[in-house]
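User: Could you check the structure of this?
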Amino acid sequence: MEQKPSEVIEAFLALIDQSHTEYNNSKGKVDYYNKHTYELVHTLEDCPDESLLEFAQQWRQETQDRRKERDNMALWESLHKFGGSENNKPFLKRLKGLITEQKRTEEYLEIPPEQREFKGGTE
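Assistant: Sure, the predicted structure tokens are below.
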């Protein structure tokens, strides 16, 4: 077994947390680029002919950067919405509780059977 079940659950919860960071960072950058595009249109009106090529190249680079951020935003959007959904918050909270229980079981099972302390019960 490569990973313990508790590690898989922890990795999933970390992925949900990462989705919020990634999505929000990219969204902030996309919003900036969108606002800046409006400003660049006005700058274009007054741009001297000899500077037009350089201006266009810079603007194209900015649109390519915006596309990368927009794609990253799309990549993380579903996980971000899943983790932020009010319907899913109780599920994620139960998963966090499950980690503690699962780790306790894993620690117990790592003890050789002959050294385990029997605590009673049906199992």
